[in-house]
Amino acid sequence: MNFITRAVLYTARKWKKTLLLFCLLLAITTLVLSGLAIADVQEEQAEEVRGTTGASFTVSRNTATGGWSSDRGGSFSTQEYLTADKMESIAAINGIEGYNASIRTILCLSDRRGQWLEQMEPTGHAIVDCQFYSYSCINSKYHSLFLSGALVMCEGRTIDSSVKNGIVISKDIADKHDLKVGDTLQAVNTPLSDDKTMDLEIVGLFEVVADKTDERNHYNESSYYEYTNNAFVSEAAMKKLLENYADVGYASADFFVSDPERLESILHEVQKINTINWNNFFITANDEVYQNISSALSDTGTLITTLIVVITAVSMVLMILILSMSVRSRKREAGILLAVGIAKPVVVLQYLLEVLLIAAAAFPLAYLSSKQAAGTLGTLFGKTAEHIIVTSEHFMLVVVVGSVLLVTAVLASCIPAMRLKPKTILSQME
């Protein structure tokens, strides 16, 4: 009788032990496959966060190194502003996907007939109710209010450098005054003055998604204007509207990177630009949201990996203990086989084949059961069940690694008995 036949007959005869090993392998493999599927979803989520979480940096004027002056608008810093050349040299660095800078002011808006527009909740004073908190934009899609999701474009287009005399207003204001994309508004910074009045085309409308939650415990003029009373104006138009004012320019600019993990290296490259006097500007990294989310994802990923390692290690120890006990209980059988001339490697091969036969049944069944278990376990880590998929790649990995570990466990459990000679083995049996 060859070792293959002996292995099959022993596995069938000792069905209780076979069932124990089968259940153990089934449970272990199911858990490991589920863990690998959850880990993959975790990695995909981390990649998605890298692509969608807004990591940026801000270059701002360092007013501490500049002087001070005054005009009709009051005192102001004479520190140099960010120019188009400076911003473009920064934006040219590989890894920066876009940037925006804004000049903020309060514009009074009217329709083409000269009728002042009203805010959503007018006070009854026309010269106050027509005031809208306005931002010039190099690229409004990178404005913090749109990036944060507080506002979302619903019609038309955003403001960028190709728009010369355009404005984006809220859909609520447009509906109130029967305005639409393509209509023209008139804008002026300060009425009853020599400030220029300009015609601006409505190029887009936005909707307010989030309620305004600014705490007004310190002075911030934008906090006194509801989001519906905000407006976004093209860069070229804003400069003309404010040409009577000396203190007009870009005090800061926000630059957005495509990969948050590259933010630090990009900052080093930016600071090497020798056409910018960095004594007059400073850089601030804005990746707190990404770092917090990334840290949480990393901690979860580490926990999942640790659990997989612990499950594998504990399972390996259990298998060795069970197989060692089995080998010790079969000393007489082993001694007889060795005494009749069967080589030790063949005996070990029989033991190995017995375990692999059980694994051959347990692994495919575990693949099927893990498809259900993975979703259930994934919810414990905050994952959506339908997104957790056990793939054939996971199965092949577990089969290969699991088979290697089983072989190792069988060999480790056989070492004590196989070191002895047949006579010694038989003499130890009662």
From TrEMBL:
InterPro entries to which the protein is assigned, alphabetical: ABC3_permease_C, Macrolide_Exporter_MacB
Location of the protein in the cell: Cell membrane
Swiss-Prot/TrEMBL keywords: Cell membrane, Membrane, Transmembrane, Transmembrane helix
GO CC term (a single one): plasma membrane
Superkingdom of this protein's organism: Bacteria
Primary residence: membrane
Domain ABC3 transporter permease C-terminal: 307-420
Pfam families hit by this protein: FtsX
Membrane topology of this protein: Multi-pass membrane protein
Membrane recorded as keyword: yes
Record's signal peptide: none
Molecular function per GO: transmembrane transporter activity
Transmembrane segments: 303-324, 336-363, 395-418
Protein name in UniProt: ABC transporter permease
Organism: Acutalibacter muris
Phylogenetic placement of the source organism: Bacteria, Bacillati, Bacillota, Clostridia, Eubacteriales
